[in-house]
Structures are given as structure tokens and as C-alpha cells.
Amino acid sequence: MIRTGLRRRLVLSHLLLSMAAGGLMIGVVAWALPRQADWSTARMLLIGLVSLLPPALLVFLMSLRVAAGIAGPLEEVTATARRLAAGDLQARAPLGPRDELGVLATTLNTMAEALRHHIDQATAGRRRLEAVVDAMGSGMLLLDRTGRVTLANPAAASFLGVKTSELGGRNHWEVIREYELAALVDDGLRHRRVFRREVRLALPRELILEVSITPLPETNADPGGVLILMYDLTDLRRLERLRSDFVANISHELKTPVTAVQGFAETLREADDTSPEDVREFAAIIHREASRLARLIDDLLELSRIESGAGKPVREPVDLTEVALLVVKRHRPAAEAAGMELEGPARGPVPVRGDAHELEKMVSNLVDNAIKYGRPGGQVEISVRRDGREAVLAVADDGPGIAPQDVPRVFERFYRGDKSRSPRHPGTGLGLAIVKHVAGVHGGTVEVSSRPGQTVFTVRLPRQKPSSG
Question: pTM higher than 0.90, yes or no?
């Protein structure tokens, strides 16, 4: 302990000072005595000692007080410095008189305040950085030179199918289950150069990631490592594939009716001996193919409107039963041509609030889809009912059903199952996507259940509240 040694040194210093003062007093007394006095040397020393005791005692007491006054504040400053060194940034040295110790205490307190301010700033910056890293949609892994994870965000943990807390301190081979990605990380650690590659993950789910591996600089304090960033391209690649399929589908669907219209129109123009019956037949074919083109154009325009977000539906009272009956009436000829029986809903008002034109488009697409994929000679049934606060529209057919792998994707834009490529099922794959959009903007939902022999599309919409008064 420094305080005991310090106190001893101060007392010793003042005792020496006291002895010096006592010697000075002896000298003064000896000088004041009459020279002619015949005193012995012993008596002179005794008188000197006696005369020395009071001032020496006084000086000694004063020395103890001065030592305590200096040692106490110095010990407090020393204790404050120790607390600061131990990490207690709230510690402050007491401020005394504006002497050297006071200046030292003030300087120590100023240094502690500046240190606390800088540490608070660094802590706040670290928390902001952690919040940004955690909120990133891209996955991030930070590995040391040995390949162990030192930092990871939730997105990376989600891509790899583990919890964020399970990543810290583990080797990348333990958490990356895809060999291609783990080998790519090994190359980044070994060769210490930038890699950027697209990688497909099969586990825990199918993902397409763009992986960027960047080596970190080596310093004396940090031996370096690599930073791994993972960008999820799954939806983008799927959308590109769907758009590519759409271009192929729409090109085929446009080419077929255009070729038919062009061919029969040229036949009518160039054939002079065409019978009236042939003319009527060719005209009917041209009309049918032109109608098919019109439907394609309508779907494309509807798709454009959906993607732009324009055209909010008009909110007005609509009887969903009347809308369904109107659609049945318009589609009955197509159903009869396919040898199918089309049954409409029983009459009875089921009011909703929305856009009559949009709702008619939604029901029409569902009925058209049922006729297109139903069983030739089968039955399509439309029903409308009330269910609590909801209006429920159901369109059912007794066709072969939807393949299980296609059910989750039937409402995707541009998506069509393999069977839809046959000439019997022309279309763009937009009808059910439009149905989902219309139901959504009206505050409702649409779902499908399918098995061989029965497919049912069910739309649920909020019912119109009855008017008061």
C-alpha cells in the first residue's frame, strides 16, 4: 500500500525539519545567555534540550497535520485512478484547493469524462452497426483465418437453416451443409482473393444465392479472415423464368389465332368460287380466333394494370349472386360447345361492396378456367352463399384435378402447369392471378382444393353491411 509509506516519508521529512528548527532554537538560547556565566557544558545541554522540547513538539504536531492534509487527498486521487483503470468510468476524484493536487484531480476527472464520452460513442456506434447487420436482408458471415464464425446475422442463419446463436465459434464446415458453398469459402480462406459466384442450396430449402467472399486485411491486432455476403436471388431467377415462359406462351398463343385469321381471310379474298356455307364457316373461324386475340389482349392489359397498381375498384353495393348469374349466362354457349353442364347459383341476394366490373372479371375467369380444364361432358357448378360476415363464392368442376405440385403455384402470374400447353388449353396463365388480385383488393381471399374428380375454387369477400334506417 502506498498510503502508509507516503505518510511515513512525510512525517520523517517534517521531523528532520523539526530537528533543524530545534537546533536553531538551541543556538538562539546559547547566543542569548550571558557570556560571563559560568555554566557547565552539561547544564548548557540540559537547558538547550528543555528549551527545544516545546517548539519541537509543536513542529511535530504541525508536521502530522500537514502530512495528513497532503496524504489524504493524494490517496483519494490514487484510489480514483485505480477505479478508472478497473473500468469504473463513473469514478471522480474530489476537488480540493487549487494547488498541485487540485490541478491533478481536475485533470484526472476531465480525462475520465472524455474517456466515458468516447466509450459511449463507440458503444452507440457498435449498437447501430449491430442493428444494421441484423436488419440486412442479405446474409453476412465473418470468419477468422481458421474458418471459425466470429459474426453472423439472422439472414445468414436463415439461409443456412440454423439459429444465429448456434453460429458463433463454429467452423464453417459445421454450419454450411452445401459442399459447393463450403468449398468456395475454403478457396477464399486459402487464396485470399475476392470470389463472387452464384450457388444453389438444396438444404434446408432450395435457394439461389449470389455469394461474395472478400478477404479482410491483416494487422498486428487482427490476423484477418474473410467476409461472406449472401444475396438471395431465388425470387428474381424464378421471375425471370416465369417471364421467359410467358413470352414463349404468349408468342404461341398470339401466333395461332393470327395465322388462322390471316389464312382464312386470304382464302376468302382470293377464292372466287367459295360457297356461302364455306364463307360462313370461315367467317365463324375468323370471329372465334379474333375473340381469342381480344381475350389475350384483355389479359395483358389487366396484367399491366395490376403491376402498375392503378385503378382502385369502385366501392358500391353489388349483389354477388346477380354477378354470378350474369357470368353463367355469358359462358353457357362455351360450356354447351364443350358438352358440359353449367349450373348457376340459386337466386337470393348476397350483397358485397366493391366494383361490379372487377367482380364480374373475377367470376368469369374462374368459370372460364373450370370449363377449360373440366371433364368433357362433365359439370361446372357455381354457388354463392352467406357465411357469417362473409360472402362465399365457389366454382367447382369434376375434371381430372390439378397436379399436387401445381396447386401451390396456380395463382402465380404467368404460371401454367404442363397440361396447359396442349392445344385444348389455350391461354396466358394470367386468369387465376387476376382472380387473386381482385379478391385481394376487395379485402377477400381465394383458395383452391383439388383431387381427381373435383376441383373447387373458393372466394371469400366481406359482406355489405345492411344500411340503417
Answer: no
